[in-house]
Amino acid sequence: YKETIAPNGYVINEETFAFEIKENGEIIKHIVKNKKEEKASLPSKSNKPTPNEEVKPSADVKPMQQPNTHNEVRLPATGGVGNEFTALFVLGIGFIIAGAYVLRMKNRKEM
């Protein structure tokens, strides 16, 4: 096996280790010693800009985004104009059928 990700603050060990899986399924523990990363030394005081020098921002600095000050809540559009039309259409058909039924019953009684 080979180490792919080193723990934080450590350098990846590039060495490849061999292992064998035995029939009895015995677990073999192997401890690998990692090397700590060398911390960069602090910059010397001479690198600090003097107050008279103009400091220019580097090209990779991104401007800060403005937070959303609007308190709008956007909900998903689960309905639509078609739902109102469909409900009215079904209700109208129901009234027509009910009216036809009442007329039919009224005509049967007269006979």
UniProtKB/TrEMBL annotation:
Pfam family, one: Gram_pos_anchor
Name of the molecule in the record: LPXTG-motif cell wall anchor domain-containing protein
Record-annotated Gram-positive cocci surface proteins LPxTG domain positions: 68-110
Listed Gene3D superfamilies: Immunoglobulins (2.60.40.10)
InterPro entries: Ig-like_fold, LPXTG_anchor
Entry's localization field: Secreted, Cell wall
Alphabetic keyword roster: Cell wall, Membrane, Peptidoglycan-anchor, Secreted, Signal, Transmembrane, Transmembrane helix
Organism: Bacillus wiedmannii
Membrane topology designation: Peptidoglycan-anchor
Top-rank taxon, per record: Bacteria
Spans annotated as Disordered: 33-77
Transmembrane segments: 85-103
